[in-house]
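Lab meeting prep.
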Amino acid sequence: MTFVCGLDEAGRGPLAGPVAAGAVILPEDFPFEILNDSKKLSEKKRLQAELVIKEKACWAVALVENDVIDRINILQASLLAMKNAFEKMCKKLPKWAEKNGILIPLGTENSLLINAIVDGNFCPEISYPCVAEPKADCKYPQVMAASILAKVQRDRIMVEYDKIYSQYGYAKHKGYPTAYHREICRKIGPSPIQRLSFNY
């Protein structure tokens, strides 16, 4: 049995907050028509898709926070988030397979064949075959699903941060470098979730 796992991140470009990554394996009977690159779906459709993905797929989401991004850079932080999401997903896989009637021979849980597909140019350090492909989130449903989970989770976190640091407008721009975001940072200084290594 070979599984295909999609990996994608959300939040490389923002000036604040974590970078998020999703890892998803989809069942054969998944309603693939609900998927697309997360940036091409409305918020309502992303939220609807998230519910179905979490119900039917084997999935995980991982975050790397702003202080780590500043320390190791955004590319390495994105790869670390994908690695962590993949490893979390792998731990769920045997139970998910059993639930879905997929037979995994006893004693092979740690030697399952998983082919990972990453949106982008680099693969995280995982102990499974991995291919990095630009625009993979427009081609492969597993990557689309990972993109959706990462985007929804990160947006949800930024809305929560907006309640704590309301003057920064995180609920509206989600930390991306809008004119208002840059201006408020210059005016009152960075919030505790700003990525201080980024240009303002």
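Slide two material, second protein:
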Amino acid sequence: MTQINISSSFCSIPIRVGIVGTGYAAKARAETLKADERSLLVTVAGHTPEKTEAFSQTFQVESAASWQQLVERKDLDLVIISTINRDHGAIALAALENNKHIIVEYPLSLDPTEAESLITLAKKKNKLLHVEHIELLGGLHNTIKESLSKIGKIFYARYVTINSKQPASQKWTYRYSLFGFPFVGALSRFHRFTDLFGQVDTVNCQSQFWYTEVDLYKACLCTAQLRFNNNVIGEVVYGKGETFWHSENTFTLYGEKGKLIFTPQQGQLLQGEKIQTIEVGARRGLFAKDTKMVIEYLLQGTPLYITPEASLYTLKVANLSQKSSHNSGKATKFK
């Protein structure tokens, strides 16, 4: 884990924070920061002046003209990056060069080489670089982990997330240059698998996009197969947009002693004719939980739930899926 030396990088109360971004995650973090006396939300920089001003008025904080101006402020301890994926790496680099601790929503960068260099720089600067992966904090993922032993040796797992949108969104998440290759931009789909099954041996991937103009699509579909070093075969299906007429979110695991099927609401254990319902914990408040854990880490050194190296590993796997997709789905070996 990329730990900081608390004695040399101690944050006094309140931790002074700037947020880059004005979307859902940024608002959830702002609400948490405003409610916690150990932190002080100072400033925000949004994608447009209008959104920045609206956010600053809602949370009664200063508005910055740009993220560059925000990270250069000497009165900030922590920068939270909750903006378009394309800019994550550049903002993190600038924040580290200005001696800030960092929270960044996944992915750390669209480029694994850049992500790796940022982790190295954070260690050199003795600064926290925390890549958010709230899927690991949620009730669904933790219930899956707790249930694995019930089905014996696992040999196949399939995770399907289809998000029907009628009509498709015109937001940045439907622009390849801003969101990245779908399995990179939606890194949590792969990260659930690497957290459950470990090291990857080979990756093969197919993708399809329905473009309405250059760099803007109305739907995408990506399917990938991951073979792990422990011989588990994982299949990931991710689709979104108006080509789909029904949404789906299902995680299915096959073991030698049974089968598990999970949705965000509940799970089932199937063993022959026996069906057992499994309760799934809540998934609300995860950005707040993540934010509080970082505050406690910076003040007390309390361990975090994920390392940037673990996120980087999954990013490298996702990058291989992108290469495989561009190579007509040819399997690519992880080195």
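Talking points for slide two:
The first strand starts at residue 15 and ends at 20.
DSSP finds eleven helices and 15 strands in the chain.
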